[in-house]
Amino acid sequence: MIRLGSCGALREDMKIGDLIIADNALCGDGVTPYYVGKDFIPAADKSLSDQLAQLAEGPLTRLHRGKVWSTDAILRETREVVQKAVDGGAIAVDMVSSTFLTIAQLYKIPAAVILVGIWLHLPPRDWAVLALTIGVVLAVEVGNTAIEALVDLASPDTHPLAKVAKDAAAGAVLILALAAVVVGLTILGPPLWARLMGSP
Question: Which of 176, 117, 121 shows the shortest CA–CA distance to 144?
Answer without folding.
Answer: 176
